[in-house]
C-alpha cells in the first residue's frame, strides 16, 4: 500500500499522510532479545519535492510476521544508527 492509497482510504490529502509519516515517533518494542533471522525491506518516497527523499527501512521476522524495528528518514548511517 502506498502513500496515495492511504490518502484515498483515509480521505485525507497526500500532504497530510506525508506530514504524519515525517513527524511520527512511534516506538516498537521487540518481543524477543535475539532473533535467528530477520528480513529487511526498504522503500522510499519524496516529501514535498524531489530534493527531499525519505526512506522507510523495516526489519521483520518472517516466521510470525512481527515487525521488529523501522527507521523513517534519510538513508544514511546517522539515521539508521539512531
How would you sum up this structure in a few lines?
This protein is an alpha+beta fold.
Descriptive notes:
By secondary structure, the chain is of the alpha+beta class. The chain is built from 3 helices and 3 strands, in the order ααβββα. It has a 3-stranded antiparallel β-sheet, covered by helices on one side. A hairpin with a 1-residue loop joins strand 1 and strand 2 (49-61). Helix 1 crosses helix 2 (14-23). It starts with a helix and ends with a helix. The model has no long low-confidence stretch (mean pLDDT 81).
Shape: globular
Low-confidence stretches: none
Helix count? 3
Could you spell the SSE succession in H and E letters?
HHEEEH
- Calculate the terminal CA-CA distance, rounded to whole Å: 26 Å
Helix content: 25-40%
Sheet of most strands: 3 strands, antiparallel
Overall tally of structural domains: 1
Task: Report the count of strand segments.
Answer: 3
| pLDDT averaged over residues | 81
Please give the radius of gyration in angstroms: 14 Å
Order of strands in the sheet with most strands: 1-2-3
Judged by helices, strands and strand pairing, the structural class is alpha+beta
Strand content: 35-45%
